[in-house]
Amino acid sequence: MSAPASNGAYDEWLDALGDGEGYALVCPEGHGSLPPRRVCPECGSATLSEERLAGTGTVETYSVVHVAGPQFADDTPYVTAVADFGPVRITGVLRGVEPGSDAVAVGDRVAVGVEERATDGAPLVAFRPAGGE
Amino acid sequence: MTDVRVAGVGLTRFGSHPDRTGRDLFATAALRAFEDAGVPREDVEELNYGNFMGALAEHQGHQAPLMAEAAGVSCPSTRYEEACASAGVAVREAVRTVRAGDADVALAGGMERMTNLPTDEVTEGLAIAADDLFEVRAGVTFPGAYALMATAYFDAYGGEREDLAHVAAKNHANAVPNEYAQYRKEVSVEEALDAPPVAEPLHLYDACPITDGASALVIVSEEYAAEHDVDAPVAVTGTGQGTDRMSLADRQHLARTPAADDAADAAYADAGVGPGDVDVAEVHDCFTIAEVLALESLGFFDPGEGISAARDGVTTADGDLPVNLSGGLKAKGHPVGATGGSQIAELTRLLRGDHPNSERVADAEVGVAHNAGGTVASAVVHVLEVAK
Predict the structure, then answer these.
(1) Does residue B204 form part of some domain?
(2) Which residues of A97-110 are buried (b: 16+ CB within 10 A; e: fewer)?
(3) A84 to chain B nearest CA, in Å?
(4) Which of B144, B197, B202 sits opposite A80 (nearest CB)?
(5) pTM for the full model?
(6) Domain that holds residue B321
(7) Which of A35, B151, B361, B382 has its CA 20 to 30 A from that of B94?
């Protein structure tokens, strides 16, 4: 069996996120984006530098997923969330909470890292509650 | 620039067709469109065909020549893929081609076969309309993405599940007389509220069903219709399209759909009308919250004000602005690659007066169709008018 296909700069970003060294790409205008990028999607600038992300972000929205595809079959129910980390927002699965509609609230602080999907062990961007601030 | 008319429309029944291939579904829709138009198939100069997941569902790429054969046309044929807006962009291309004078007659529409796949594989297939790296791998499903938008909407503007349940009840009621609809049964607000969750805050009746079906339109120039004595009383007077960042997380606002704002602005400007002129609309209600976002992007309501439109009776069949008299994606069904063509077919019937719900909008002269791809990273809007 051949090795899984590489996703280049995305895989590097995921590795860095897992090591607690997540970053965003930021252009001179201050627009943030996630790799792989050759240009800023907002303004087209080709001058992109890596900016370290704070370890915690703020939940902007979330959902409790009960019906998923085969890759998440054994993960349901789970909470997906979009959290703001300043130059970028990140989408991930919120763990460490009971998956229900009151599991989390918009505005809650979360830490970000990389964990494993329950279904098949594939890497998964994961949030954990970071407590009040 | 020539004016564009809808000469004929054809639909299959939307629903489960376990014994029918995609090519058979599209052939049926095309046959009905030609019968409705009274236009000979040999006059067709372009086929613009929409399909999203045929490679997954039927192991079939390169579908356009296959569908040209199925429809019995011999002309340049192209497949358009824009997720759930695939047929919308296909129709838009036909309109632009006829307007440009490159063709007098085009066949446009789309097909999707979905119910032959198990539910989890359809869920996976639909999810790939989102960003694979940053959304699908992070657990985002198609309902899950709209659930994220619903939570963000409630947080930003207020509203509650019961508002969305009224959208579901409205569209199910509209589908009852529609012979092409998948679910011709009423659903009460209470039933919608009590249904099992899919991706909270969205429950079963907030979501469109999984559907097989096809749509086809015969689009002609005004001159062709006049020369050949084709009865085509509905004109496509405006077309517009918009694009947004692919990932929801990259959007400026998590509860707005600016791609549809842009598509609507362009289509209204093209037609020389505004939202206040619209008498009837078919909008992309793949989930109940999506209808709310569509109403706001189309300029019928300010951001944050569309949530109560169904509950207040504004968009119901007897309201000031009936929305989704076909039953919408919600109850009529959503064969994703056919939906954009189906909306225009339904709107044409409503404006011509031969739709079972036409009496609800007996004096309507201007209709709008809103078709969205993914979480509205793509949107297409068309304005249809009764030709003067």
Answers:
(1) no
(2) bebeeebbebebeb
(3) 9
(4) B144
(5) 0.97
(6) 4-117+209-386
(7) B361
